[in-house]
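task queued by scheduler; priority normal; single chain, no ligands, no partner chains; default sampling; output format set to C-alpha cells
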Amino acid sequence: MSKFLSAVMALACALSVLSSPAVHAAEATLAGFAFAGDFKTAPARFPYSFKVFEKLKAAGAGNNLSAQVISRSQGISNPALELRPASSLVNLKNSDQALMAVLVLTDEIVSSENYGSYYKTFVNLRGNLLIFDYKAQAVIRTYPLSTVIFDATPSAPSEARLQSFVETQLAGQDGQSLISLFTKRLATAELPKEGTKSLQVKKVEVSPEALAQFPAPLRKDPKAAATLMADAYASILSARTGVPLLPNSIGAVGGVMMMRLENGDDFKLKVAEGDYLFDLKLNGFVKKKTDETNVGIAYVYGVYSSLRFYEPSLGTEFINTDIKNGESSVVPATQVSADDFPAYSDAINGLYKKFTPFLIEGAQTDQKWLVAAASAKDIKSQVETARDILRKCK
C-alpha cells in the first residue's frame, strides 16, 4: 500500500510540474541606436558622432549604427529577456509588444590642448542601455555606459584623427566602444521585479578649484563637468554591482526625456525620480612629488570628494562622508610640460572603483583603505546599510 501511495504521489508531483505555467523571459525588441534630446540639435551637440552616424548611414542599411547594434547583439542569451528580431520593429505599433531596448548616446566631449611640446587629446562618449515601454512611453531600466581615450601628439591632431577616435569609441570592435559595452550589458540586463526600488545620481557639484584642472570645454561649462562626474560614477557603480540607475543626464527635462531612433521615430519618455539618490561633490585635486630620478618624476595625484546616499522622501541618510583617493604616476624626465587631467581622472575613477566593492555582498575589500579614505567614523556601518539598500534595487 505504501509503495502504491508513493507511486501515486510521485506521479501527482510530476503532473504538477508539467502542468505548472513556465516562467517566460520578457520579450524586447532591439531598436538599435538613438541620439538623446531633440534630434534637430544633435549635429551641434554631437558634432563628431553625428558625422559617424551620417557616414555609416550613407554606406547602406546594413552598416548604419542601428544595424551594427542589432547585428552585434545577435546570439546574446539572457534568461530575463527574449530579444526579438529587428524586423519586428516595423510592426511594433500594431503588436502587443511594448518593451524596446536601445543604445542612447547622451554626451560627447572632444578636447585637444597644447601643453608646450605636445598636444593632449581627451575624447569621452557616454550613453545608456535604455529599456523602455513603447506604449506607456516610460523608461523601465537604464544601464549607464562610458568610454574614454587620452592621446598625445607632437602636433595638433587633424580633424580626421579626432573623427577616427570618435568612430572607434562609438562602433569599434575592441570591446571598449559604446556598442561593445552595450552588448555586454545587454547579456546581463534585468527588468525590475515588483517592489524593486530605483537609484539615481541626483546632484553633482564641482568646485571652482577642481574645475580649473578640467579640459577647456568642461572649464567653460560647469554643468557639463558635473554631468561627466555623474556619468563616471553611475557607469562604474552599475557595471560593478549590476544595479541599474535611472537617467541623470540624457536630455530629461521636467521628468521627460526626448530621443529619436534611426528609423525616424521620436519619443518623449517619462522619467521618474529615483527612490534612492546619490549626491556627489568634487572638492579638489592635489599633486605631490614622491620621487625623482634621471628617468622621471613620480607623483601621487589625489582627489578629494564627498558622497551622500539617501532616501529623499523621508530624508534618511545611508552614507554621508568626505572621501579621498590617490593614484601614482611617473612623468618622463624628457617631458617638458604635463597635462595633469588624465592623472586626476585616474584618481577619480580609482576612487569609484575602490569604493564600489564595499557595496557588493561578499566582495573582497580593503577595510584599511576605506577607514583611511573616508572621513565618517562609522563608515563601515554606513556601507553595510547601503549594501542592504542596493539589494532592493536589482
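post-processing summary
- The chain is about 30% helix and 35% strand.
- Residues 1-23 have pLDDT under 50 and may be disordered.
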